[in-house]
Amino acid sequence: MKLDKIKDDNSFMKDRDSKAVVNVDNDKLEAYKNKRQKNRQIDRTIKDVEQLKSDVGEIKSLLHQLINNNGK
Hints:
Blueprint: E1 3-6, E2 9-15, E3 21-23, H1 26-70
Antiparallel strand pairs: 1-2, 2-3
């Protein structure tokens, strides 16, 4: 792949063959990957908390049924 500099920006270069603009700033790429990973972890944590809330609600419902059935 042969790359040419893009005017006034060292982060991007243009591929001579495909004319694609390529980001060559590895620090920004790593920062993006880290942020994406953190966002995925946050999403998984949110799903886990939602599942726990649902499970606790189900347990509470079952406990109420047990209490009501034993009281009769």
